[in-house]
Write a structure and sequence with these properties.
about 290 residues, mainly alpha, MetI-like fold, globular
């Protein structure tokens, strides 16, 4: 038995090595850059400072971008839940071909991320598919400017991350025993009340997981705002990318990265505390 335990312990070392090389080591470099005032040069002493973080709060421009990013990410998450829940419910409860339909749902996402983003640029342009369709249906008299706005960024983010909401919701709904719903209806509950009291409450774990998979990537997104957005659609990810690739200020870019990570963790903990795991398990117990 001790030999088996020793072998099992050895299996964890490759995972720890991978975690150190590809996560802890890059994160350590980012943290060092965030609290220093110059590039990391071998042989030179480090000058620690928190001025990089102070700039984020001193300049109103960055706070506006931060609030805009939170707003767009929040709306992306809400609309993803609204669009994903009926799809996930249908896949889990109303069809026998759920496995096939999930593959069909994911096929477009096997295409490169940037190609799909540029496809949305063609759809939303003034001469694009959307405007041509609306003109043909006589809904509008002239092309509507959708591209290079917060609306186009929101549409792109919803399209990209909605499947990340469908999958955990589907898994959560699939585990719900249909006999619980039938029992509640036998006891006098209407179909609507049975849905909200049983199905919806038991699927909160899927909503919680899906929210994490949608909100955090949307908050740090930079490709979609850069391609589909305009000057009023710049997000945090664009500021960070600009500091690293164009300005060359790795210290401030790292500080913004760390600030974004801390903000994301704080929001996740707050969401988990108020609407997350504790209330979900309590609802399960009551059910």
């Amino acid at each position: 038995m001790s030999v088996i335990k020793s072998k099992n312990k050895n299996l964890i070392y490759p995972g720890l090595l991978w975690l150190f090389i590809f996560f802890l080591l890059p994160l350590s470099v980012i943290l060092i850059y965030a609290v220093t005032a110059h590039d990391l040069v071998p042989g030179e002493s480090l000058k620690f400072t928190f001025s990089n973080f102070a700039v984020i709060f001193q300049k109103k421009h960055y706070l506006i971008i931060l609030l805009r990013s939170l707003k767009i990410s929040f709306l992306t998450t809400i609309f993803s839940i609204i669009f994903s829940y009926p799809v996930a419910y249908f896949l889990a409860k109303r069809t026998k071909f759920d496995k096939v339909l999930i593959v069909v749902l994911m096929i477009p996402f096997w295409i490169n991320y940037l190609i799909r983003t540029f496809a949305w640029k063609l759809i939303l342009s003034e001469n694009g598919v959307l405007n041509q369709l609306l003109l043909w249906l006589k809904v509008i008299d002239e092309p509507v400017r959708v591209l290079y706005s917060q609306t186009s960024v929101l549409l792109g983010l919803i399209y990209m991350y909605t499947p990340m909401m469908v999958l955990p919701l589907y898994a959560s709904l699939l585990r719900i025993d249909n006999s619980l719903v039938e029992a509640s209806q036998d006891l006098g509950a209407s179909r609507i009340r049975a849905f909200f009291d049983i199905t919806f409450k038991l699927s909160l774990t899927g909503i919680f997981a899906g929210t994490l998979l949608v909100f955090i990537p949307a908050l740090g997104s930079f490709a979609i705002p850069a391609i589909l957005g305009g000057t009023d659609s710049v997000m945090i990810g664009n500021i960070i990318e600009n500091q690293f690739s164009r300005v060359g200020n790795w210290n401030f870019g790292s500080a913004f990265t760390v600030a974004l990570a801390v903000l994301s963790i704080a929001l996740v903990l707050f969401y988990s505390k108020i609407f997350g795991l504790e209330s979900i398990y309590k609802n399960k117990g009551n059910t």
